Amino acid sequence: MSLKIIDFYAVWCKPCTNIKPILKELQNEYPSVEIVFLDVEDPKNNDVVSKYNVRNIPFLVFEKDGNIVDKLVGQQPKERIIQLIEQHA
Hints:
Layout: E1 3-9, H1 14-29, E2 34-39, H2 46-51, E3 59-64, E4 67-73, H3 78-88
Parallel strand pairs: 1-2
Antiparallel strand pairs: 1-3, 3-4
């Protein structure tokens, strides 16, 4: 029963670059939470981007036991991400 966060981003996306250090901090604060960073422009990620129907970035998907339990679109404050981690972890 582990929580996984998938961060869909692009290198040119300013909100994406703003949220990345927050997620890296949270990796240290919540070591049981797996955080995966996926560049939407990398062709090897096309299938995953399609699977999650990514339309806007940054796009965070929260999964527990392989099931999507929450999503966040756009730049989010650290407190909101923490709220969802604690709700689903």
